[in-house]
Amino acid sequence: MIPDREHELHRRRRGRNFALGGALGVFVLLVFAVTVAKLADGQVIQGF
Fold first, then answer.
1. Given this model, what pLDDT does residue 33 score?
2. Is 43 helix (H, G, I), strand (E, B) or coil?
3. What CA–CA distance (Å, rounded) separates 9 from 12?
4. What is the dihedral sign for C-alpha 19, 24, 25, 26?
5. What are the transmembrane regions (predicted)?
6. How many CA atoms lie within 13 A of 29 on its CB side?
7. pLDDT tens across 1-48, in order?
8. Element (H, E) at 28
């Protein structure tokens, strides 16, 4: 039997998951932007 209403705990957890996913997405975009900016200078990036 599937309940008609969603429990408050699940609603809050979903909101936190969206917030965490958004923060992770922003972090990935920031790292990507920094990488592109470093490559745009024409310098060679070496991994050690």
1. 93
2. coil
3. 5
4. positive
5. 20-40
6. 6
7. 566 677 888 889 999 999 999 999 999 999 999 888 888 877 666 777
8. helix 8-40
Give the C-alpha separation, 38 to 35, whole Å. Answer: 5
Which pair of tokens denotes residue 8? 């408050």
Asked if 23 contacts 30 with a C-beta cutoff of 8 angstroms, the reply is no
Phi-psi bin for 10: left (phi > 0), alpha (psi -120 to 50), beta? alpha
Amino acid at the residue 30 = L
39, 45 contact by CB (below 8 A): yes
